Amino acid sequence: MLRVVPENSGQLVPLDPTVPGNESRVSLFGLDAAALAGVLKEEGEPSWRADQVVEAVYRQYISEISSITTLPLTFRQKLVARGWQVGRPEIAKAFKSADGTERYLIHCPGPKAESVEAVWMPEGDDGEAGDGSTDEAKDWRRATICVSSQVGCAVNCQFCLTAKLGLQRNLTPGEIAGQVVSVLDRHAVRVGRDRVNLVFMGMGEPFLNYDNFMAAVRLLVHEVGLSPQRMTVSTSGIVPGIERFAEEPSDLRPKLAISLNAPNDEVRAGIMPINRKWPISSVIDAVRRVRLRPRERITFEYVLLGGVTDRPEHAREVARLVRRTGLPAKVNLIAWNPGPDFHYSTPKPETAEQFQKALTAEGIPAYIRQPRGRDIFAACGQLKRTVEA
Ligand code: SF4
To answer: Which of 55, 217, 291, 387 is the most buried (most CB within 10 A)?
Structure first.
């Protein structure tokens, strides 16, 4: 009997043919090496063939079983006949910004087919790879991929376009990792040669889909070969999630960013309703439990909303909050990215600079993040499956 990976579990269970969609195809993508070995054994093949499938699907980005030529032809045909497919989420539409950023609408196939967004942000290198490679098509040296963890979001931050979708559903581990692999494939990224960072800051709140998110991280580390030290997860302050995260092995967890966005509970509750459930002090207490790796810092993300969160006295309050963690930390300042139907305003560049100076004067490292891909709705807080460029 075929098996399927259901939403939220990452586990193999017997396929229920009465469930609509199950009678069609089931995906190899999303299974880790051990689960693949189990599938192959059940299909009458030695478990070591799992390494071949991992290499093909996660490292060579092969998206059709028929193209996995390390597997015997008859076995590939058998897998397809038995209803297996690679089943990786695929880029359905790409929007290109003038600054090189690309936003993707990514189709997640399966019984609960959905689309989500991911963003590719290259850093140009003036045409010189600088790594000894001769890949002429490559005009970037480093890049960051912004990844979604849910379809929509339930957290309802008042300044965010994704919030307007509400929560549609959680993404599975394969759907989260699949966004990354599809983008790596599009840009012919060679893991190990190219420097690619991942930020789990796309659609959704990763810590409200904790198990699937961490299963995706494990796939990306073990099967795809990416370093967790080049990954950052951002949370709006889901305290039970931060507490679980603090218990993860340090060689398997991304870096942590807290989406703070306000200087105190009163202002924060007005723009992030989640603050009523978990106020700033409870978030900071949870953050203090995280055991940092050498040279690691906690990041506080801070969206500057004109007249709401961007005053100099706010900067001093933020500095006090950050100091309370007792951990090495920095603040990333993001001038709010505008969207339709919002009543907020974007602060002037000099206001952001004054805020940054006020933080550094308090001894807190602060950086102004340049907006990427605003023109294609790819910047922070703008992901909403917008189908126009
Ligand atoms: S900012 Fe993040 S957590 Fe808040 S609503 Fe948007 S996607 Fe959700």
So the answer is: 217
Distances (CA, A) of 29 to 182, 289, 334: 11, 34, 35
For 84-139, write each residue's pLDDT tens digit. 999 999 999 999 999 899 999 999 887 788 899 999 999 854 433 334 444 445 66
HEC string for 290-348: CCCCCCCCEEEEEEECCCCCCCHHHHHHHHHHHHHHCCCEEEEEEECCCCCCCCCCCCC
Q: Indicate whether residue 97 lines ligand 1 (CB < 6 A).
A: no
Active site residue 380: yes
| CA 231-259-112 angle, 5° bins | 65
The residue among 29, 147, 166, 144 whose CA lies nearest residue 87 is: 29
352 C-alpha to center of ligand 1: Å?
Answer: 22
CA 79 to chain centre: 31
Catalytic residue, chosen from 45, 114, 117, 301, is 117
Distance in angstroms (rounded) separating the CA atoms of residues 29 and 57: 7
Spatial contact of 199 and 234, defined as CB atoms under 8 Å apart: yes
Residue 158 in this model has a pLDDT that exceeds 50: yes
Does ligand 1 have an atom closer than 6 angstroms to the CB of 380?
A: no
User: Cα–Cα distances in Å, from 149 out to 84, 272, 374, 384?
Assistant: 25, 19, 21, 13
Beta strands in 40-166 (DSSP E): 84-85, 90-96, 102-108, 114-124, 140-146, 150-152
302-347 pLDDT tens trace: 999 999 999 999 999 999 999 999 999 999 999 998 888 888 999 9
